[in-house]
Amino acid sequence: MSSVVKSLADKDVDSTDTELRYMAYGARLRTALRATHRYIAYTSDVGEAFRPLVSPAAVKAAYGISWLYLSADVSYEAYKAHRRGPSPSEASHLSEPTRIGLVAVKRALFQSIASMALPAFTIHTIVARSKPLFSRFKHPWSRTWGPTVAGLSVVPILPYLFDKPVEHAIDRAWEWMEARALADRQLTEKEGEKGDDHRR
Question: Is the pTM of this model over 0.85?
Fold first, then answer.
């Protein structure tokens, strides 16, 4: 297993494109999930869709699975960054723990927004807003299961809805913050040099 992880890290394979996403469900479900590996992060949203029908403990368990996956994904991205090593610019401006920490923070930010916050808000809103609509139905199955089915129907499109826009927004914000931090550092270094010249 260790050699597989090292090989994936050396090749800069994204954990969202690998079978590491299957870990939460075990080897028996691997075949069934092969086509849907991106959706492990959305286990919490399945739980959110079932909220009207199941106990709060079941919903919390679904969130737990998602957070475990997200933690593993963030750790894997940090590990890949460590194995890859710093770029020349990173090596001259960042300590290794800072560089790895920034990689982890960026990935955690992406996962928290794209895989947890926005999807949970979307599913919760769909289930809550569709309840009054389905309460008008005469058939008890429709009243009971309608909101859940409405919420579940959106889960397959969640990666397409949020991943790219959130990734783009975070990349843009990150680039802006890096540019600001670099400019501030260069200004501080210039001021330090001026202070050294005055002392001479």
Answer: no
